[in-house]
Amino acid sequence: MIIQKYTYQFFRDISTLGGIFFYGFILIFLLIINQYELFKKLFIALIIVYFFAIILRYFFFKERPVKEKYTNLIEKIDSSSFPSLHAGRASLYSLFAYYNLNFNLFIFILIISLIILYSRIYLKKHYVKDILAGVLIGILAFYISNSLIIF
Predict the structure, then answer these.
(1) Which range of residues forms the domain containing residue 120?
(2) How far apart are CA 19 and CA 134, in angstroms?
(3) Rounded CA separation 57/52 (Å)
(4) Which of 84, 95, 121, 142 could be cross-linked to 134 through a Cys-Cys bond (beta carbons 3.0 to 4.6 Å apart)?
(5) By three-state DSSP, how is residue 61 classified?
(6) DSSP 8-state secondary structure symbol assigned to residue 140
(7) How many domains are contained in the chain?
(8) What pLDDT band is residue 62 in, cutting at 50, 70 and 90?
């Protein structure tokens, strides 16, 4: 029972690394260290991920494994399981790390990203298909962002 408690807490905490606040922290950090091009790419990619996710969540609402209550449209979109925004952001971390950082740091970020993906299933926030759709949207957003930001 104690192991389950700590396992749950571990995955809950890891899951926050795929959240919007941590992503925002990374964006602010990039500005502080004068990585403006990478900031622009990650910011545009985030907007693209949200655009596709919100459209899909609006038109193809899917209950989470543990259903969440909602009383308005914004809460309904937020309580939709498909696609996973955490997965979209985690895939962006990995792709940008692969193309912009050294190999060892990329491997570390990739492992963290995979744990984030698993945490969403473990915490009963998403199904595997939701995670895969989020990853695909993240990959799409990465390539669109890289093709848009030329300067």
Answers:
(1) 2-148
(2) 13
(3) 8
(4) 84
(5) coil
(6) H
(7) 1
(8) very high
